[in-house]
Amino acid sequence: MKALLTRSIEILKKHQAWTGAFPAAPYFPPYRYVWLRDGTFVAWALDWVGEREAAGAFYSFMSRTILKHSYKIERALKRATEGYPLDDATCLHTRYTLKGEEGQEPWGNFQLDGYGTFLWGLAHHLRAGGRGREEYIKVIAEVTRYLCGLWKIPCLDCWEERGDRLHPSTLAAIYGGLKAVLDWLPLNLKEKAQEVLIALPEVVKKEFVVDGHLVKEAYSPEVDGNLLWLAIPYGVLDLEEPVFIATVQKIEEDLRGGGVKRYRGDTFYGGGEWVLLTAWLAWYYRLRGKEEEARELLSWIEAQADEEGQLPEQVPSNLTSEEHYYYWIERWGPIARPLLWSHAMYIAARLPVLVPVCS
């Protein structure tokens, strides 16, 4: 559906703030912030379609914002070394206002996957022809220091849950980010990053494989749609590795209806099917040459667009808990639409992104 592809690009550009930031969902009050994870995938998608200026504006904004708050890095590293938990005062936040300030209302802020994703996206932007700025080199070094010091510390996962555990999807984002920026690191930091890149895959294979497939967290039999990240795009595992193939099969068995759910126990807005994860599975199918299977998922995504071509965060079908769907409707209102990350991942799956970006 070429119309939705064109419309997705228009929507991403339309909602970019004057600062360069991308709100996660412009009309959904809880999401009127810029998350590193969501924003980076949006910028990456725009880079992929040649919108270099828009992508660069995001990376410039995000670099300034991180550097503004980088005094927290030393604080976080010291606190972690001493064995104390990190809190909002001692960690880099996971989301910021569109002006680059920290959010003031309560939120789970110690998340590392967004910072790994940011490094991954920024490296892609630079390799794709984005202008190399001094602030980019500085922020790459600062975020690398942060991740190398904290990667083994439990934190919230990408769904902002389970902050007392390690998560393979988070480790994957850290791995992808560190691997992507090696060329821009000074020797001492490059050596530290390489140490993590050697150790991290061993942790994943040792702690997060159950019955031959990956699981969402240690000591759990469950899969999560975000386990697709381990190969695409972060490259911890190869597409052809048996453990990854088995993981995809388990995701198909446990989480796929028309679209793809996050995980079986999900109750956020009832635990429906997520557009961005459906696009991720379609992306995987395309990388494996399964065009018919990819087309089926892309058609499902396209059917979820409203009259203005806007894609939601999730679709309330195949719900885990109808009671929780109405709970969240009453608390926060209708499901977020458009979710910019949904449009970004539709672009990734719709266009021939036929090699993992980290390779």
UniProtKB/TrEMBL annotation:
UniProt KW keywords: Hydrolase
PANTHER family per the UniProt record, alphabetical: GLUCAN 1,4-ALPHA-GLUCOSIDASE (PTHR31616:SF0), TREHALASE (PTHR31616)
InterPro entries (alphabetical): 6-hairpin_glycosidase_sf, 6hp_glycosidase-like_sf, GH15-like
UniProt keyword annotation of Amino-acid biosynthesis present: no
One BP annotation, GO: carbohydrate metabolic process
Tagged with keyword Hydrolase: yes
Domain GH15-like, first and last residues per copy: 6-290
Protein's recorded name: Glycosyl hydrolases family 15
Domain of life the protein comes from: Bacteria
Alphabetical list of Pfam families matching this protein: Glyco_hydro_15
GO terms of molecular function: hydrolase activity, hydrolyzing O-glycosyl compounds
Organism: Thermanaeromonas toyohensis ToBE
SUPFAM superfamilies linked: Six-hairpin glycosidases
